[in-house]
């Protein structure tokens, strides 16, 4: 695919841009794929470099191969700039090493922070680790964050100049098969994401216990502690209402979103969930927690409902309200869909990122990255 600037200026036609993502098929990789597949006319060629892959046992070999590919592509003129996508823990270790290699090879890069728990991760590092993280961030031509809540960490603690930090949300392609007419008569609640404690999976099962008296079904799809969550469902006597499955393919996700009325994501930490944006794009009423950038995405009682992470009673109350009041669920879902169309479509987000590429890799234009990027539509 190609990269262009919305103001008319393109990266040179010979420019080769590398996109670095883990290759785990999770939300971060989905964000990269959505933008990679968004076609525009002219500009630079992009290539995705997988830094980990789906097999833990093969991850070291995959990473070594990626490092070798970086060197080969640079030497052969097929890597001129990079866009590094970053989360915490092992992702940071790998991306620090990649940044060292890129700097040694004189390849400029931009860095995009995705990890919702990065403040906690930073606070738990010692002086040496913080120095390496600071190197990773400060050597980037630009640092992209998914929402305003992440800027204080990057600017005030890590030390990146404010004019090199830009808020750019995740973007996904608008669905081509969204269809409200096929929604189930009985409200279906859907969850998509990793199934484990930090995502609020067990809180959700406890909330389901509190609303057993209502007529509803639920579908929980994800990887992680699938068997443990299924056991919790069974122990709660919810097998007749709740279905738990491993990850399903994208076509099946669309079918389930069409059949569903409510989406819930009671996470303790997030950056900006791709699953939440997908649910909004299909017009579902969303129940989420105000963590990461979600407090900017969801406006309580306007385009969804916000509940405190870990507050099972509030979560159950929000779900009960939406099941009991179909008109409210429909109103919130329609507004969420309008907000998605205005702010989170991949094409609009890609235009913002294209400006950042031009400013970061063609710095002779003279204005700061933050000043040059056209913001998305204002929140109403």
Describe this structure in words.
- It is a single chain.
- Helix content is 42%, strand content 15%.
- By secondary structure, it is an alpha/beta fold.
- The protein has a seven-stranded mixed sheet with strand order 1-3-2-4-5-6-7, with helices on both faces.
- Helix 7 links the parallel strand 8 (188-192) and strand 9 (217-221).
- Helix 2 runs parallel beside helix 3 and helix 3 (90-104) packs across helix 5.
- The protein is globular and about 65 Å long.
- The relative contact order is 0.13.
- The model is unreliable at 1-6 (pLDDT under 50).
SSE topology sketch:
Layout: E1 2-3, E2 16-21, H1 27-36, E3 44-50, H2 59-75, E4 81-86, H3 90-104, E5 109-113, H4 118-123, H5 127-138, E6 142-145, H6 151-158, E7 165-167, E8 188-192, H7 201-210, E9 217-221, H8 226-235, E10 242-245, H9 250-259, E11 262-265, H10 274-281, E12 285-288, H11 294-297, E13 305-306, H12 312-324, H13 326-343, H14 346-361, H15 369-372
Parallel strand pairs: 2-3, 2-4, 4-5, 5-6, 6-7, 8-9, 8-11, 9-10, 11-12, 12-13
Antiparallel strand pairs: 1-3
């Amino acid at each position: 695919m190609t990269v262009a600037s919305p103001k008319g200026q393109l990266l040179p036609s010979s420019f080769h841009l590398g996109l670095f993502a883990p290759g785990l098929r999770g939300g971060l990789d989905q964000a990269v794929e959505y933008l990679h597949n968004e076609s525009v006319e002219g500009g630079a060629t992009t290539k995705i470099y997988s830094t980990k892959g789906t097999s833990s046992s093969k991850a070291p070999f995959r990473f070594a191969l990626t490092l070798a590919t970086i060197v080969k592509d640079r030497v052969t003129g097929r890597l001129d700039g990079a866009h590094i996508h970053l989360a915490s823990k092992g992702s940071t270790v790998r991306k620090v090493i990649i940044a060292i290699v890129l700097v040694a090879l004189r390849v400029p890069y931009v860095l995009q922070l995705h990890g919702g728990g990065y403040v906690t991760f930073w606070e738990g590092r010692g002086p040496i680790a913080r120095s390496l993280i600071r190197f990773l961030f400060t050597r980037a031509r630009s640092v992209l964050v998914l929402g305003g809540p992440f800027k204080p960490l990057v600017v005030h603690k890590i030390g990146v100049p404010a004019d090199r930090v830009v808020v750019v949300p995740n973007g996904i392609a608008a669905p081509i098969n969204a269809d409200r007419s096929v929604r189930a008569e009985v409200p279906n609640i859907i969850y998509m994401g990793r199934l484990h404690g930090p995502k609020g999976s067990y809180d959700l099962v406890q909330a389901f216990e509190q609303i057993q008296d209502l007529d509803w079904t639920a579908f929980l799809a994800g990887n992680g502690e699938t068997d443990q969550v299924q056991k919790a469902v069974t122990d709660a006597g919810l097998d007749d209402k709740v279905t738990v499955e491993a990850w399903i393919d994208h076509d099946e996700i669309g079918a389930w979103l069409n059949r569903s009325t409510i989406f819930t994501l009671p996470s303790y930490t997030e950056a900006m969930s791709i699953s939440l944006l997908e649910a909004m794009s299909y017009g579902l009423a969303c129940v989420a927690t105000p963590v990461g950038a979600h407090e900017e995405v969801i406006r309580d009682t306007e385009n969804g409902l916000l509940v405190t992470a870990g507050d099972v009673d509030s979560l159950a109350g929000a779900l009960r309200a939406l099941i009991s009041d179909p008109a409210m669920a429909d109103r919130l879902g329609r507004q969420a869909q309008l907000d998605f169309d205005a702010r989170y479509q991949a094409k609009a987000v890609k235009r913002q990122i294209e400006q950042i590429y031009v400013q970061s890799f063609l710095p002779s234009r003279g204005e700061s990255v933050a000043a040059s990027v056209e913001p998305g539509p204002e929140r109403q």
